[in-house]
Amino acid sequence: MKIAIFPGDGIGPEVTAQALRVLETLSLPGLTLFEGDVGAAAYRRHGHPLPEETLEMARAADAILFGAVGDFACDDLPRALRPEQAILGLRSELGLFANLRPAAGFPGLEHLSSLKPEVARSIDLLVVRELNGDVYFGDKGERMSAGGREGWDAMSYNEAEVRRIAHTAFRAAMGRGKRLTSVDKANVLETSRIWRETVIAVSGEYPEVELEHMYVDNAAMQLVKSPGQFDTVVTGNLFGDILSDQASACVGSIGLLASASLGERQTDYGTFGLYEPIHGSAPDIAGQGKANPVAAVLSLAMLLRHSLGREEDAARIERAVEAILADRVFGGDLGGTASTEDIGDAIVRKMV
Amino acid sequence: MKIAIFPGDGIGPEVTAQALRVLETLSLPGLTLFEGDVGAAAYRRHGHPLPEETLEMARAADAILFGAVGDFACDDLPRALRPEQAILGLRSELGLFANLRPAAGFPGLEHLSSLKPEVARSIDLLVVRELNGDVYFGDKGERMSAGGREGWDAMSYNEAEVRRIAHTAFRAAMGRGKRLTSVDKANVLETSRIWRETVIAVSGEYPEVELEHMYVDNAAMQLVKSPGQFDTVVTGNLFGDILSDQASACVGSIGLLASASLGERQTDYGTFGLYEPIHGSAPDIAGQGKANPVAAVLSLAMLLRHSLGREEDAARIERAVEAILADRVFGGDLGGTASTEDIGDAIVRKMV
Ligand SMILES: CC(C)[C@H](C(=O)O)[C@@H](O)C(=O)O
Ligand SMILES: CC(C)[C@H](C(=O)O)[C@@H](O)C(=O)O
After folding, report:
1. Where, in this chain's numbering, is NAD(+) bound (chains A, B) (predicted)?
2. Which tens digits make up the pLDDT trace of A220-245?
3. Among A88, A100, A275, which residue has the most ligand 1 atoms within 8 Å of its CB, making it the best to mutate?
């Protein structure tokens, strides 16, 4: 079993360090860890946010534990050299097309949400976001027009692309509440028309799942008004970027939320994937012991579940996290005083 | 002074009727009203959701009061014939490039929001959405690809398009809190790169306005977490569609929210524009007297202010609406029992 560890920038390294401590407590047989450079850290050392050797390491692994990328110092670099390219490049080079972002409140932490406690408590949804297509990876550029310089980006989805993410979403819905909301803008976009028609075609294979379609503007509205109505949500790369962040904000504690990005490749133990916290690199608080490592630890749990077939270990980690939250081991983001390391300590203690 | 009245579908006609009663109380000298067909109603009568004669009427007017369009019965029509094309067609044919959507809570109605009352109360923002460009009006179509049928849409913005909406937004910010948040996805999109560079260039002319840039995913998050941080928000057509609906949902009472869509053309009295409630046609409750006409009445107030230069009358209408809300004249959407007509009656009584 090989895990590539890409800590990245800002608070990435410190939260990843705590996840690795938790991983150690499992004493997994035959586990090998590689550490690679990504983001601004990689740019400084190798002149590129996603160096070839990092990509090689990723390809050789069964799973990737990713911290975070991003640094104010890179704001003026051309886009191709900015830290975000590391995560975009990994997603496309490795064919990680399915981003799973569960958003559910932690009991007792509803007060952290800006939503009313009863509304926050009702949230228990999974956003399945397509990660390899859409306007993210289409042709793009600048050209001259009658109105001066013009920036353009090509948006598209084809049936094969939609089909595979739809299958992922329907299967996920089968393991949850059997309700799937497909979000698009089919009243305006041809990309969305193909999206919707293909999702409907795939739905025939999942008669038990109740499928509904929602325009993205209405979805953004409903996610605020009554987020409890959603079970599984499937959508394209751009709308998924927006709605999954919105859903995380509804929960209120983004320092606790993890995500998985899965590809098609099967390893000896499960599905190849990359796992990362929802939160960013937060360079303003880096190195101060203020970061919450829970999202990184829960990303590790997702990694064990999806890529290494170790459901038991994943569940143990999740129980340990629940236990320390019940004990109110809170960092500053949750209104407490525990440091990044204190929180790691507490989780490690619960693992024995 | 000529106002074109386009009541449209569903609850559109009944809420527009109440706005017209309020307009009558003003006894404006030299006012002419025309009524035209749009949406499903127009499709049934003329075979098109935006008939040529409606467009002619719009062109001849100083302002348009629009109800709502949309009807379940049209779901299976080809997109070009669906009711939404009426509003999309009016926006592009008439050059209505600036959509102004104020979102602010009404004192005493914070409980309607799913946000905590103190968070809901903090909302007082204006979304300035570009309406004539972006992926809405670019080339689009279907083609064959290696992955089967592929839907595609071209997204773009040029400097001239961004410049004019930026000026609208900076001017609006000058009349408000002098803070402007420009929302884009410049870490991924070339369209957004031109957007951001152009907004920065225009900002030089408004040294008093504090400008910040925010990625759309972060904006969707911040709009839930702390919507009170926003004063004026400017963004493209697609992101504006999503974020303005999200902001309306944060306020909690979309039956109360109005919008203006302005063009470049100056009339004898102000700026040519179209005014409509935020809410849709709600065909499920049409004709039952359940619709809240306040958004339509407040759209009329915006029309008087922006297109007819009648600030006094606009303010009078807004005060009348505040007064009936203070009197708790509430329809079902606000937890009361007043009918559409009862609410219209109450507003009319406050106008004398
Ligand atoms: C960093 C950025 C390019 C990225 C995205 O838009 O996908 C991020 O927002 C995310 O959601 O992982
Ligand atoms: C009906 C639809 C095409 C329209 C849009 O997306 O612009 C609507 O959602 C709006 O915001 O006015």
Report:
1. 280-292
2. 999 999 999 999 999 999 999 999 99
3. A88
